[in-house]
Amino acid sequence: MADWTLILQARDRQEAEMVRGRLEANDIPAVVMDQRSSVYPMMGNIEVLVERDHVMRALRVLRTEMDQEA
């Protein structure tokens, strides 16, 4: 995972999976890392990561989709 870069900290697992799906639909490999505590689920983060080579493209895809939703 050394070549993977954090691009988003999601509020919940559903948001993270939706973002991952958008990225993969644009041929950008992405993973969701759920680092929340199993005992205290409000503690910890849910992160979306992409390979370092795809960071700029991934951010552009997310920005474009956010602009279309607004």
What do you see in this structure?
By secondary structure, the chain is of the alpha+beta class. The chain has two helices and three strands, in the order βαββα. The protein has one domain: 2-Layer Sandwich (Alpha-Beta Plaits), CATH 3.30.70.1530. It has a three-stranded antiparallel β-sheet, with helices on one face. The N and C termini lie far apart (33 Å).
Detail the topology: elements first, then pairings.
Blueprint: E1 4-10, H1 13-25, E2 30-34, E3 46-51, H2 55-69
Antiparallel strand pairs: 1-3, 2-3
Keywords, separated by commas or semicolons:
70 residues; alpha+beta; Alpha-Beta Plaits; 3-stranded antiparallel beta sheet; 3 strands; globular
- Give the DSSP E fraction (strand runs of 2 or more residues): 25-35%
CATH top level label: Alpha Beta
Distance between the termini: 33 Å
Whole-number tally of structural domains: 1
Fourth-tier CATH superfamily name: Hypothetical protein rpa1041
Order of helices and strands: EHEEH
Mean pLDDT: 89
Annotated CATH architecture: 2-Layer Sandwich
If strands are numbered along the chain, what order do they take across the biggest sheet?
1-3-2
Radius of gyration: 12 Å
Low-pLDDT runs of 5+ residues are none
Query: In one word, what is the shape?
Result: globular
Can you tell me the CATH topology?
A: Alpha-Beta Plaits
The largest pleated sheet is described as: 3 strands, antiparallel
Q: Would you tell me the structural class of the helices and strands?
A: alpha+beta
- How helical, in percent, are the residues? 40-55%
Number of strands: 3
